[in-house]
Design goal:
Chains A, B: It holds the Pfam family MeaB. Chains A, B: GO terms for molecular function: hydrolase activity. Chains A, B: Its EC number is 3.6.5.-. The structure is a homodimer of 337-residue chains. Chain A folds into three domains: 45 residues, Single alpha-helices involved in coiled-coils or other helix-helix interfaces; 229 residues, Rossmann fold (3-Layer(aba) Sandwich); 33 residues, no CATH class. Helices cover 50% and strands 11% of the residues of chain A. In chain A, helix 10 links the parallel strand 6 and strand 7. Chain A is globular. Chains A and B meet through helix 3, helix 7, helix 12, helix 13 and helix 14 of A and helix 3, helix 7, helix 12, helix 13 and helix 14 of B.
């Protein structure tokens, strides 16, 4: 693979080159990881910036329909839209929620759109890194908006929020006790709450649900990164294409305000630090799974289980024996510079 | 401090020696950690076994009153009872829920009881290790039952369940939607659900709440470690001392069955392995907070924040430079034996 060629085709906005580059960053092979790092390093420094929009919604809220309608509304304005998925359960369920592109038939045939399903990895850390790198690639390829969607299994909402400029929560109309069904902490992450299916028989239920959430949002403490009136709740209908332009206007208003006030850049910087620290921790823990450490650990675990030693003593022994950290560093490291 | 003397006084069941030993295991000083490890190693091999009972309940369910009444019921039967607390929030709230022993005035004056508040550490990992070691000490001192209580902040319920033979969930009577207020996953951990305050005006509400939970428990899949009829829900009144003996009988029935069937020992072995792995991970991550790694990490974080490098590249650099793991091991390690 010619990396220079791939790089210029990505910068030219070619979707096939983008797809190929994402396949490269998804690969677990050491050789591919090296090439991916080189490519990403080569692409750094372009001045393109997409609006990264995280979107969470449980199955049944009409997420695919929403993304299809919202995406087509954006491409209708001449904007280029990429859709990525973070779905840690895809390995188990045998396919991503986006795997079936037929669910977004119109959008997937749109030349201004790019849809990429979640890779089949069960490890959330792996999915997170791949998605962050795919976001960088889409941004380099000149996309205007990147939608990063998740079903919200386990920690995946946090993962998506930590790589998004804006975070949307998509809900369906429901009875009075539905407020309790939203996972703790998700309300606090949302910049916009969209109550979908505000059409037909469900319209009045959607309006009531929206009012409930608007009330709940007012109870939360004001965040420094929000202008007056945010976060807010609104109704939309993906089926009838209503409320979608208004939602996009609000998203632009919010991100413009944050750019002016310095919160936009500050959030991206904080996210970069978060992922750096997460990768260091993960890389360190991955070393426990390598021989001979993993073998010694298994042997000690048996001793701990049968009571020959205590968990604390066994852990000290393993840490002392194998996990001494170099305190000198390599002499030729660029850190010295 | 004479460790041999301390050891024999603990084995003789002296509460002052036990208190002193727990202070030792709570200390963060390296010298004290070494002594604590020696003491625990010296105490290993006694054949005493307490029933370790985890207890979770949010503020307002009457946890202190329950522990007081339940503990006095046990000492009334001639049993020795220790009470420990796992409260990760104690550092913040300026004192453990058990800090004020006056809340358990009768029990704290009982010569057969030993009450120890949660240490003021904000770090749940530290509280967990201290509590496991305190459990070992109480067991060596010949206590029959060890109650480990938590308010259930964050992950503290999992921490307590991973060091208990039985796990109790204490609830207060409430309206119909209270089922939803119980944190996801807690129901699955409980061996007994006790609905407290089944007295006076609240008696019928307690009976209804108990029936709701009994119904919910029937919906859960049967666990291999449970005989027919478990987990179960029942009403108690700490105020009127009703239901407490029955709860204790059930706890004994359940633990006797598990001992006969081999589940009791298997659970303790699995817990030992869990804590061993947790301590290895924590010890490894603690190395990131030491110089020069922490300094290099801070410098790289700044570069990541201002976009000079990517999170992935910076993490690789740090891992390569400082976090190489020894693949040889110390030649004189007991692992060779």
């Amino acid at each position: 693979m010619d990396l220079d060629d791939l790089k210029s085709r990505i910068l030219a906005g070619e979707r096939r080159a983008l797809a190929r580059a994402i396949t490269l960053v998804e690969s677990q092979k050491a050789e591919h990881r090296d090439m991916a790092a080189q490519l990403l390093e080569g692409l750094r420094g372009h001045d393109r910036q997409a609006l990264r929009v995280g979107l969470s919604g449980t199955p049944g809220v009409g997420k695919s329909t929403f993304i299809e309608s919202f995406g087509c509304m954006l491409t209708g304005q001449g904007l280029r839209v990429a859709v990525l998925a973070v779905d840690p359960s895809s390995a188990r369920s045998g396919g991503s929620i986006l795997g079936d592109k037929t669910r977004m038939e119109r959008l997937s045939r749109d030349p201004l759109a790019f849809i990429r399903p979640s890779p089949s990895q069960s490890h959330l850390g792996g999915v997170a890194r791949r998605t962050r790198e795919a976001i960088d690639l889409c941004e380099a390829a000149g996309f205007d908006a990147i939608l990063i969607e998740t079903v919200g299994v386990g920690q995946s909402e946090t993962v998506v929020a930590e790589m998004s400029d804006l975070f949307l929560l998509l809900l369906a109309p429901a009875g009075g006790d539905e407020l309790q069904g939203v996972k703790r902490g998700i309300m606090e992450m949302a910049d916009l709450i969209l109550v979908n299916k505000a059409d037909g028989d469900l319209k009045s239920a959607a309006t009531r649900t929206c009012a409930d959430y608007a009330g709940a949002l007012r109870l939360l403490r004001k965040r420094p990164q929000d202008p007056e009136g945010y976060p807010r709740a609104m109704t939309v209908s993906a089926l009838e294409d209503s409320g979608l332009s208004k939602a996009w206007e609000d998203m632009q208003e919010l991100s413009d305000w944050r750019k002016t006030e310095g919160h936009f850049a500050a959030r991206r910087a904080a996210q970069a630090r978060y992922w750096f620290e997460a990768e260091v921790q993960e890389g360190l823990l991955a070393r426990l799974r390598r021989e001979p450490v993993s073998g010694a650990m298994a042997a000690l675990a048996v001793q701990v289980e049968n009571g020959t030693t205590t968990p604390t003593a066994a852990a000290s022994e393993l840490l002392e024996r194998y996990l001494q950290i170099s305190t000198s560093g390599a002499p030729d490291s660029p850190l010295e510079a």
